[in-house]
């Protein structure tokens, strides 16, 4: 079979030249800057998690050992490697080791299951899979076995914990701890160039399955540098990774990578529950963290009675889904920190409110772009610019927004204009100050507490059930989650029980957050009679019907 294509990301020459001339792209690489930091301040703490406390020198050494181990096992520069790890220090050593070796991480969320992992492995042509043995009650080593059974191309598996007992047919899976022990004296700081693809991030997926997003060293490091500056990070910064750090937000805005880039310390919280986070904030004197709105709600709710000293917190970033002004207002009085709203996307564009902005902007807007070269278009349904201050579709291009997904011509044709703008699918308006307010989405995904769910993907799973004739999945406003998912189902023959349908979906091997929160049975969809009604129109109608009933 043909070799799968290598990931690339190319901007037209004139744009690339402009971004280099402006100093955005500096031909820096991940492997090289980590070595620079480790040389400049070897003994400063870089990563804290569980019982581990790694200095910059230690992180650098581990990255080199892993790089040597991965290449020694037979992986070749440019190979893709699925990274399926929770918030543990190994996550950071692994990605830094992959960067150093010129290998390309493909990030999966801990919640993803075999169906999604297989999709990412196929789409990227991955040759290796790295996971924890078990985490939060799930057996990732068993998933590894299943994956290799389905896709023999994934020839290499590494498991994070030494006590992994799962045997592959060829014996126990090797573990990272064995690689850390490898001698690695002759690993170069970096074998990559700035323009090379550093990793594949996954898209929120508005239609169908997630797409793969190739980001280069040049473009991503630019966002780290600027995000760290905008968020006031320096060597004194202590960043708490509370959301799963495979998410683009806690990874790069400025996230754990931006914190390390700035020479600060990353503290990893392996569980999302606020009490674990508060304990770490107090113990490690955390200064900044990133949260999605529902998690912020929990923090606001539980911080006062937690008995923890949270006085070290300077900045609470909130993004991933719309934050209401009501809640935004409570951040400073309750948590004693400055709120920063963050409106970003794994495809590129990130907007921040600035720390010294007036309260009106911090509370009511989702910020303004990182770069003076982020180009923003707000268009009406016919593709014409809206009047100033009016809402419209957000399109963007710039020095860190991709021009194409990996190996996906049909998605590229849909998601990018001919002159290279990315269609975000978001509906926004711009304030006179040039700040964006997110109004909603044009596309049909569900933004469930910051996790994006494609309606189409879940409908396909429902349709595979023998007692389902047709299905439409819609988002419903939810006080706590922001949005929850509701599946309208036309049964075929005997009506299945909602719980059985949910179990069916789960058994398809997909992330738990994608299982419909609510199932409503209907006899027919009113307008499917008019044969050509779009799914989009149908979903809108069903959503309206549901809201009316409530
Ligand atoms: C409303 N909607 C928002 C916000 C994202 C930083 C922050 C977030 C993400 C992210 C990210 C929103 N208000 N503040 O990658 O680097 C919705 C929009 C957007 C989509 C992108 C980062 N912040 N959104 O959430 O790729 O609909 O990235 O297009 O997961 O989340 O989702 P994702």
UniProtKB/TrEMBL annotation:
Q: Which residues form the AMP-binding enzyme C-terminal domain?
A: 457-530
Q: Where is the AMP-dependent synthetase/ligase domain?
A: 34-406
The record's listing under Pfam families reads: AMP-binding (PF00501), AMP-binding_C (PF13193)
Domain of life from the UniProt record:
Bacteria
PANTHER family associated with the record = LONG-CHAIN-FATTY-ACID--COA LIGASE (PTHR43767), NONRIBOSOMAL PEPTIDE SYNTHASE PES1 (EUROFUNG)-RELATED (PTHR43767:SF1)
List the protein's name. Answer: (2,3-dihydroxybenzoyl)adenylate synthase
